[in-house]
Design a protein that fits this description.
The chain is α+β, with helices and mostly antiparallel strands. The chain folds into two domains: 67 residues; 201 residues, no CATH class. The protein contains seven helices and 14 strands. Helix 1 runs antiparallel to helix 2. The protein starts with a helix and ends with a strand.
């Protein structure tokens, strides 16, 4: 019940109480022979009415407060916009492994009742592939980790159902032709270089900059100036390398690291991406 309605209720009840009291006083004045017991009865009726109306008003106020408290605080995906930050799932982030923290995701695109999101921070550090060998996104160990270990760790059963499985296409490196590999069906994936340009633009490096979590830092992610390197799924100059984004947000077809981090001893982190069903 709204505050205005509560005020009106109090006013009406107050008028009713005044009328009852006036009637009681009139009856007492007109009947001098009335007994003390009858006077007590009138007083008791007045007390009962007052208690009842106060309780009704209090109940209405409580109902109003409860309705306000129950209003959802989290962003409704159906009302979300590109650029919004939402929380979904949980993963260790603050370095205190006693409890996982909610993961924040940035919305990059919305299409067909789905939202494409990427983790707002670099969540962990992993090699693109455990060994330096020719691999593609389809065969790398990082894809296996994302779609098995990370999914199991970060999402409950209901959240897993909300994540869409999509076809992921990885283009060849446009400069040297390094093989992008076969299409894959994934729930979790890395952005490609082409998607970075599509969703972030070709010149806005700062927008691509991502800070690492304390947990990623403790695991040895490389970075500087509150930014971290993070992997893309696009191949580098050869099939044993993969493109990366640097801590300042720069990304280019010739900006890459060996899949095991051995080229410059740079250990990029992971910013998972996925499509979430509304």
């Amino acid at each position: 019940m709204r505050r205005k309605e509560l005020t009106n209720l109090k006013s009406v009840k107050g008028m009713a109480l005044a009328a009852i009291l006036a009637m009681a006083m009139c009856a007492s004045a007109c009947s001098a022979g009335g007994t003390e017991a009858e006077t007590d009865d009138v007083a008791q009726v007045s007390e009962d009415v007052t208690t009842g109306e106060d309780q009704e008003v209090a109940d209405a106020e409580n109902d109003s407060e409860e309705q306000t408290a129950e209003e959802p605080q989290e962003l409704n995906l159906a009302e979300a916009k590109v650029g919004d930050i939402i929380t979904f799932g949980a993963y260790e982030q603050d370095g205190d492994e006693s409890a996982k923290e909610p993961i924040e995701w940035k919305i990059l695109a919305i299409s067909d009742n789905k939202a494409l999101v990427i983790s707002d921070k670099v969540l962990d550090v992993k090699k693109y592939n455990e060994e330096k060998t020719d691999v593609t996104w389809e065969t790398c160990s990082l894809r296996t980790w994302l779609n098995n270990d990370f999914v199991a760790e970060a999402f409950d059963d209901a959240e897993k159902e909300q994540i869409a499985e999509v076809t992921v296409t990885t283009e060849d490196n446009a400069i040297n032709g390094a093989d992008g590999g076969n299409d894959t069906n994934d729930k979790l994936f890395l952005l490609s270089l082409e998607e970075v340009y599509e969703y972030y633009g070709t010149s806005f490096e700062v927008a691509r900059k991502a800070a690492p979590t304390a947990y990623a830092e403790s695991n040895g992610v490389s970075g500087y100036d509150n930014g971290a390197y993070w992997w893309l799924r696009t191949p580098g100059s050869t099939s044993n390398q993969a493109c990366i984004v640097n801590p300042g947000g720069n990304a280019d077809k010739m900006y890459y690291e060996n899949v095991d981090g051995s080229l410059n001893q740079t250990y990029p982190g992971v910013r998972p991406a996925m499509w979430i069903n509304f």
